[in-house]
Structures are given as structure tokens and as C-alpha cells.
Amino acid sequence: MATIGGSAAVESLIETALRDQDQDGAIRWQAINELQKRGDLETFTAARRLCSGKTPAERMLGVDILGRLGFVGRSLPVLRSLSVREDDCLVLYSVLIAFGHLRDRRALPSVIALAEHADPRVRYGAAYALPNIMGNPPDPTGLSALRRLINDPDDDVADWACLGLALSTGREVENVRGQLLDP
């Protein structure tokens, strides 16, 4: 990996995270958590650079750091840009999870666009993000996207969308599916 221009501590944590090949690996997430705890501009800058990395692993790491670092106003443009230009499904999934963690309504157009993606992992990420960014009262276009995802051919996507719609509307999960039958 090319040097990203941060301090030795930031560089070391990034290298540690990138060495763990498992996207859900304990070592990777421990390093990410340490970076997120820093909560500083240096870490944000390093994560932003990673989002432009040559490999999907670098871009996913940058996204995973930004998703919980804070700096919402600075992170959203980076993530929204990546949501349009990225072609790796796992990176897009991470972008959607990051949007959900940031809980900012400005991500809604990007999430709605990705809710129609061909890959079920990306649609799952959209189903996760939507209830977290629709606001209160929930945005009608976000609700409509969740309703479409309830009918997704992938059961995990449909189930998560059902839960998201129930949480967003205050209805019981069992009643959400019935709601679809009565428009």
C-alpha cells in the first residue's frame, strides 16, 4: 500500500487493518475502532485518501472508518461520490452501512439509487440505511423504496426492509406485510 500521508500511528493502524483479509475480522475492526476513537482531522484525511485507493480493500477501509468517525458534513460528499463511481459491491455495501451510521437525510438520494442495484448485498445495505436516514416523519420516497425492498427476491433484503418499515412507521412487523396488500 502506498503511504497515505498520516502519522506513524495512523499509518500503522491502517496497515494492520489492511493485513486482515477478513472484512469482518477482529484485527481489522480493532484497528478501525482505534482510528475512529481518535476522531481527528488526520484520521479523516487518511480515510478520505483511502476512499480513492487502488484496491477495493483500501476503499472499503476508508469507508468503514468514515462511517463512524463523525465529520458528517465532510464525509457525506466523499461517500456520495463513491456511491456513484464505485463498481465493487462490497465497497458499495460498506458505503450504505456508513450512510446508515451517519444518519443524515442528505444521503437519501444515493441510498434510493442503490436500492435498485442488481446485487442483493447492495440492496441489503440500502434496506439497512433507509430507516436510519429518512428522518422523522419519514421521507415518503424513502418509505416507497423500503416498500419495494420488502418484495425483494432475496429473503434477507426483504426481511430487513420489513423491519425498517416497521420501525419507521411504528407498526408491528407482522402488520407491515399486510399494509402492502392494502395500498
TrEMBL record:
InterPro entries associated with the record: ARM-like, ARM-type_fold
SUPFAM superfamilies: ARM repeat
Origin superkingdom: Bacteria
Record-given protein name: HEAT repeat-containing protein
The species this protein was found in: Streptosporangium subroseum
